[in-house]
Amino acid sequence: MPQLIDSHCHLNFPDLAVRTPEILANMEKAGVGHALCISVTLEKFPEVLALAEQHDNLYATVGVHPDYEAGVVDADNPDDVPLVEPDVDTLVRLGEHPKVIAVGETGLDYYRLTGDLEWQRERFRTHIRAAKILKKPLIIHTRSAADDTLRILKEEEAGEVGGIFHCFTESWEVAQAAVDLGFHLSFSGIVTFKNAVGLKDVAAKAPLDRILVETDSPYLAPVPYRGKTNEPAYVQFVANELAQLRGISAAAVAEATTRNFFRLFPSVHP
Hints:
Layout: E1 4-9, H1 14-17, H2 20-30, E2 32-37, H3 45-54, E3 58-62, H4 88-95, E4 100-109, H5 118-134, E5 138-143, H6 146-155, E6 163-165, H7 172-180, E7 183-187, H8 197-205, E8 211-213, H9 235-246, H10 250-264
Parallel strand pairs: 1-2, 2-3, 3-4, 4-5, 5-6, 6-7, 7-8
Helix pairs in contact: 4-5, 5-6, 9-10
């Protein structure tokens, strides 16, 4: 069985950070060779980078999630420091580290936040511009905002660097538009849920050379662990579901998604 890669996880989050040796051992047993640890604030970026520096098979991103508003105190921040808005220079400086292979998680979220969200759109543009300077792909978060997400990606010519629509849950039309822009679609444990009928259809039809698998751990554990703390080892259940939906072997899904990851991130070594 070829190795799998978890293209999106949050191993610095408290539920997982205290179990790093166990999580890495579970990855090895499950045949998960690499994992990409995702940054959501600049304040916690050093934790993400430290994991990547300490473990050869872990990599990092740099970015600020669209759910985090600058100037607002993060309840999870023990220092009670207002969150800092990223700028292009800061993202580029931090993103030059060799273990930082992508910019994000960035994008738009009109589900969790309402009101005037122009600051989200400007932040998104900031990340895209930094990614183009770094020549590193983007990790895209989009929720209830697909039209604006695609529009901004086009306006900023983000196809120059491409990247990943992570935890993809959008329509087939959005999937096609993302692929046409040069992006990959990453499927999470949601695709294993019985009620995810539309998503299953997208996963069955998406081009095999543009799909990836992820956990988004500690969230969205796949069946049979739904409702429990997720971890990279469970990405195998996402791959198994994709195999069933597409009528191919789990080994074929593993081979394709891993090949896709290495092509998108050529600095990562098998």
